[in-house]
Amino acid sequence: MLGTYFSQFTDTISSGWNQFWFQRDSPKTVSCLRIVAGVVALIYALTFTSELAIWFADGGVLPLDRTYRLTGASDPTVRVYYWSIFYLAHSSMQLYALHVVGLISILLFAVGFQTRITSVIATLFVLSYAERAPMLMGVLEPLLCPVMIYLCLAPCGAYFSVDAWLRARKGDTEEVPPSFTAHLATRLIQVHVVAFYWMMAFAKLGNPVWWNGEAMWWLIAQPDNRLIDLTFLGGSQGSRLLVFGWTHLVVFFELAFGLLIWFRIWRPLLAVLAVFHWVGLGLVTGHWEFAILMIGLTLAFAPWETLEIASKETSSSPQQETATPEPASAGA
Fold it and tell me: Which region ranges are annotated with the description Disordered (predicted)?
């Protein structure tokens, strides 16, 4: 009996593992995620435009030798693996020439033109922006960079892209077959997003201001990056209680999302709540690019096959009603 139990146990674990990772999915999910990641990456790259030479030129704030010293790369006894294509540029002209190439490649990736090639080039530039000065990285780069890498694995230009439009113009209207790499990229993004939610939630649980309910007020009160002024919420006892409740709901949602998102019945509700969650935090903190990315990556959990079946049933139901013959009159 014990041997039978362990045999069933290992079979269940192995079948669940294979079903989770080694399946074939439609590339529609990764195609939508390409648009999300491409748009956010383009916004992220554009933020460097006005101050690119001020930061990274030889006479700027962080020239190459100073970056080496700050990251420890100048010490031969320390192994540092930072690398950026912008390390090759020293003058303003060289920096902006590479910057233009990067913007064009990211734009082509976002619209889905020659996606197999532009995905790799765009990812190289996004990594280069982040790695040129790692000390300047914020909350966006640790999520955007891995997502770009994962999308390089998948046929993310199969749908909703210039590639798909060109393919249709040539008369190729067949559905793109399900792909293992599309499934793998989706799973990697799902796991990464859930890990990010739990990381943020556990970091908040280690801070006393999130336990006593004051954290959201401190975010609201800081005037530097916020997009909306909500300091009026500290004017009365009732509004302060609202802020305290908001603080605890932020932590609760981030913990619940990482657990309940794996159950299909919860996904529509969590997707709607994620919009309110990140819109609120984006307005208060000013990290609106990160908020857009987190909302968009919720599409990684979208059950496309369910949506397609529902849409087919909806479109076929009027036809069935029209085709149904009316009952013959009893008098006739």
Answer: 311-332
Task: Assess if residue 56 is contained within a domain.
Answer: yes
Residues 142 and 222 in one domain: no
Q: How many domains does the chain have?
A: 2
Residue where one domain finishes, among candidates 127, 161, 195: 161
pLDDT digits (tens, 9 = 90+) for 281-316: 999 998 999 999 999 999 999 865 544 544 455 445
Q: Is 319 left (phi over 0), alpha (psi -120 to 50) or beta?
A: alpha
Q: Which residues of 18-27 are buried (b: 16+ CB within 10 A; e: fewer)?
A: eeeeeeebbb
With a cut of 60, say whether residue 37 has pLDDT above it: yes
Question: With 70 as the cut, is the pLDDT of residue 234 above it?
Answer: yes
Residue 154, judged by CB atoms within 10 A of its CB (0-12, 13-18, 19+), counts as buried
The confidence score (pLDDT) of residue 105 equals 97
> Is the pLDDT confidence value at 79 over 90?
no
d(CA 298, CA 268): 10
User: Cα 130 to the chain's mean position, in Å?
Assistant: 16
Report the C-alpha gap between 101 and 95 in whole angstroms: 10
Asked if 136 and 201 sit in the same domain, the reply is no
Residue 119 · residue 156 · CB < 8 Å? yes
Per-residue model confidence as pLDDT tens digits over 176-209: 889 999 999 999 999 999 999 999 999 999 999 9
Asked whether residue 197 falls in the same domain as residue 99, the answer is no
* Interatomic CA distance for residues 313 and 315, integer angstroms: 6
- Domain span at residue 208? 179-303
User: How confident is the model at residue 176, as a pLDDT?
Assistant: 87
**318 assigned to some structural domain:** no
Running DSSP on this structure, what letter comes out for residue 180? Answer: H
Residues in contact with 221: Cβ distance below 8 Å, sequence separation at least 6, in sequence order: 231, 234
Does residue 9 form part of some domain? no
